[in-house]
C-alpha cells in the first residue's frame, strides 16, 4: 500500500494543473505521512475547490476514532460493497495531488529482512492525482474533521516487482468524471485501473525516507551504494522538520 508521498512543486503549478480558485501557499513536502493534513481537490457547487483534509478516512458512523483503525488506503475492488465507503464512493470522490510516492520492497526474512524504499514519479517530474474518497466526521462535541483516503488497486507490471498494490491514478482528462457526483457506476469502474506502465519511473532510494521526521529534497536522491553506511558506521544525520520527533504528525503548511 502507499503510506508516504510527496508534493514538492510550487503552489501555482498545482493550482494551474487542477484549476481551482483558491490560492494556497505552502512549502514543498517530501515525506507526507498518515494523519497529517494533505491537499485535496473536490467539487463544491460545481466548482473545483482546494482544501486540507486529514489523511485517514473516518466513516460517519464511528463514535470514537481511537477505536477505529487508521484507513489511509481503500481497496477499489470492495469500496462499493463496504458500508464504510459505499456512500463516499457514490457521492464524495476527490483528488489527492502528488508528484511522487514511495513503496518498500521487502527482501529476506527475520533478522535478515531488508526493506528497500523506491520513489515513483513522472519522468518529467510533473503532478498527478490519486483517486480518493472523503468524509466529514462529526464528533459528539460538535466539532468536525474532514478526512480522506486514496483508492488503491492491483499494481501494474512495473510496480508489481515491488508491491502487489498501487494507488489509482486519475488521468487529467478524467478529472471531471471522477469528481462528478452524478457519474455513472460504469464510468467509475473504468477509471479504477492500474496506471500505464510508462506513466511513472522507479528510483531506488536510501533509507532516510523511512523516518517520518526527515523531510527534504535529499530524500529523493538515487541510492548510492558507495555512500551507504557500513554496519559499524553511524548513519549521517538528516534534516528534520520537527526536531527529530517521529510521530507521523505535522502540518502541510
Question: How would you characterize this protein structure?
Answer:
The protein is mostly beta strands and 253 residues long. The protein contains 4 helices and 12 strands, in the order E-H-E-E-E-E-H-E-E-E-E-E-E-H-H-E. The strands form 2 sheets. Strands 3, 4, 5, 6, 9, 10 and 11 form a 7-stranded mixed beta sheet that branches. The protein starts with a strand and ends in a 49-residue tail after the last strand.
User: Can you summarize the main beta sheet?
Assistant: 7 strands, mixed
Strand content: 25-35%
Helix amount: 10-25%
What's the β-strand tally?
Answer: 12
Kindly state the mean pLDDT as a whole number?
90
N- and C-termini, Cα separation: 25 Å
Count of helical regions: 4
Note the topology.
Elements lengths: L3 E4 L3 H8 L10 E4 L4 E8 L2 E9 L17 E3 L10 H6 L1 E6 L1 E8 L6 E8 L6 E11 L5 E11 L10 E3 L7 H5 L5 H7 L9 E4 L49
Parallel strand pairs: 4-10, 5-10
Antiparallel strand pairs: 1-2, 1-7, 3-4, 6-9, 7-8, 8-12, 9-10, 10-11
Which terms summarize this structure?
253 residues, mainly beta, seven-stranded mixed β-sheet, 4 helices
Summarize the structure.
This protein has 253 residues and is mainly beta. Helices cover 10% and strands 31% of the residues. The chain has helices at residues 11-18, 86-91, 175-179, 185-191; strands spanning 4-7, 29-32, 37-44, 47-55, 73-75, 93-98, 100-107, 114-121, 128-138, 144-154, 165-167, 201-204.
Amino acid at each position: 500500500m502507499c503510506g508516504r508521498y510527496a508534493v514538492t512543486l510550487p503552489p501555482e503549478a498545482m493550482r494551474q494543473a487542477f484549476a481551482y480558485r483558491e490560492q494556497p501557499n505552502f512549502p514543498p513536502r517530501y515525506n507526507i505521512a498518515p494523519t497529517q493534513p494533505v491537499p485535496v481537490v473536490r467539487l463544491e457547487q460545481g466548482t473545483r475547490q482546494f482544501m486540507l483534509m486529514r489523511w485517514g478516512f473516518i466513516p460517519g458512523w464511528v463514535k470514537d476514532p481511537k477505536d477505529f483503525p487508521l484507513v489511509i488506503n481503500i481497496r477499489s475492488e470492495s469500496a462499493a460493497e463496504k458500508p464504510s465507503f459505499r456512500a463516499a464512493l457514490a457521492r464524495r470522490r476527490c483528488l489527492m495531488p502528488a508528484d511522487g510516492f514511495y513503496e518498500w520492497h521487502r527482501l529476506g526474512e527475520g533478522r535478515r529482512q531488508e526493506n528497500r524504499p523506491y520513489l515513483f514519479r513522472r519522468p518529467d517530474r510533473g503532478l498527478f492525482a490519486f483517486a480518493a474518497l472523503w468524509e466529514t466526521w462529526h464528533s459528539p462535541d460538535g466539532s468536525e474533521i474532514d478526512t480522506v483516503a486514496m483508492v488503491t488497486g492491483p499494481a501494474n507490471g512495473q510496480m508489481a516487482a515491488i508491491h502487489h498494490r498501487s494507488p489509482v491514478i486519475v488521468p487529467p482528462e478524467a478529472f471531471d468524471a471522477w469528481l462528478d457526483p452524478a457519474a455513472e457506476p460504469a464510468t467509475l469502474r473504468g477509471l479504477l485501473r492500474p496506471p500505464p506502465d510508462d506513466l511513472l519511473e522507479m528510483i531506488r532510494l536510501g533509507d532516510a525516507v523511512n523516518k517520518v521526521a526527515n523531510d527534504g529534497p535529499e530524500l529523493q536522491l538515487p541510492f548510492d551504494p558507495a555512500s551507504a553506511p557500513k554496519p559499524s558506521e553511524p548513519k549521517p544525520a538528516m534534516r528534520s522538520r520537527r526536531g527529530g520527533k517521529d510521530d507521523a504528525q505535522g502540518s502541510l503548511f
